[in-house]
Amino acid sequence: MSSPLLQLSNGSKMPQVGFGLWKVPNESCADIVYNAIKTGYRLFDGACDYGNEVEAGQGVARAIKDGLVKREELFIVSKLWNSFHDPEQVEPILKKQLADWGVDYFDLYIIHFPVSLKYISPETRYPPGWFVDDASTKIEYGKSSLESTYKAMEAAQKKGLTKAIGVSNYTGALLLDLLTYATIKPATLQIEHHPYLVQPKLLELAKENDIVVTGYSSFGPQSFVDGDMAMAKDIPLLFDHDVITSIAKKHNKTTAQVLLRWATQRGLAVIPKSSSQQRLEQNLAVTNFDLSDDEIKQISSLDKNLRFNAPLNWGIPIPLFS
């Protein structure tokens, strides 16, 4: 079992269905990554802020050692955290993350959030998180512009530390601004994307500029209920929504598969995760059936412009999407 490949502007091919490492526990991460590779996953979406890159790399190393896969067959993604936006910090932290993964290059390295926070050295606290203090009470912004950070990302790509660069959580305005100064176009844009947050105009803008979109939190509130987010608990779960369940029944698929197919059939990449072998296989097998145009419209009509992954929703006083 394998995923279809999407062509990136840098010439690379990225699996359309990958495995997201957000909230994967450290103690089981290596085994989960190893098993995902064994199941057929080739794209792994990590980040400094997830705090499990060392363990993810251990899973990759074991799979390579056992002959399950070669490094060049994998597509490893990582992200630049907000505390390392100063141009002089981009290359050092990228190299640290490569060392954590135990690889020589990333296939894709992206800016995690479009906000600069004060630098915190890895020796002081790693991952540094959103707050400048250990008590998680004080936000202190950095001084680096997004342009200066992106230029440092371009330099890292030219040095071969990453094959492609991209951005995450950018709005249309920020993407338009980036395109005025980028000498290397971002290969991908990663955004929260589910039927409650469709963002059709942003998707159009990315497509017009040959930027592949990766959608995260494909299941909407389901991804946030276990994080004790109050607003997520007040929203009907997409897994139980009449529109989704009726379409799933018609196709003899799970509601998760329908949600992932709604995204992939419209050209997006997705990065679900699961520790269940059955769901691992089901999530990977979401491109072998098609929804009708009417079914896609029905699902898209559920749009509420409802964003879960905003700092304010986590009690972090940064009005990033306000």
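[next item in queue]
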Amino acid sequence: MSEHSVPHPVARILVVDDDPTVAEVVTGYLERARFAVEHASDGVDALRRAGERRPDLVVLDLMLPGLDGLEVCRRLRAAGPVPIIMLTARSDEEDRVTGLEVGADDYVTKPFSPRELVLRVASVLRRDRAATTAAPRGTLRAGDLTVDPETRRATRAGRELALTLREFDLLAYFLEHPGTAHGREALMRRVWGWDFGDLSTVTVHVRRLRAKIEEDPARPALIQTVWGVGYRFEPGPGQEALG
């Protein structure tokens, strides 16, 4: 896909970065790719703009003055679903994973290729719009787990699970394909529609999902690790996944 092949209607992107040079470059590339772009130079301004008119996607710098990117991400997520791609100058994996754990959908490490960022933005938006316009699927069940793709609700033993968008999509995919081993690259492509990205994204979402559905996340029985391959969902004896 070229950087000009962008889904329609025109998506609104909020770029949050206190570095004027980075903000100017990112904004310029996104605008040339036919996106509508707003820029906020700090976290408070970003939350104000998002509250006035919710963007379709946020490109969010981790290192912001005052209210940092992690806290901005938490507050954006608390206000409602919105895709977030985090920018970070840090190379430490712990910082990148922390961004994913508070709700970022992906991250790009500085220095980065603006063209690659445009492609990632377009890819995330395509996935979100596909999920919105897809034909309704039937309710999925496995043991005491129930997932309703149409209402975007998931429960365990009658109690609603607080899942992020990515966690919900991953759980629904596992229930639709029980007993099958899935590699992390395949999960990125089939669940979220990403043709590229850091595989730790999948690892983090699996870990977070296990913490919400497993009896003992340290010894997972439902989402099992298949060494050298990836993961497999096992409903358990007498608990087949049903559509």
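[queue empty]
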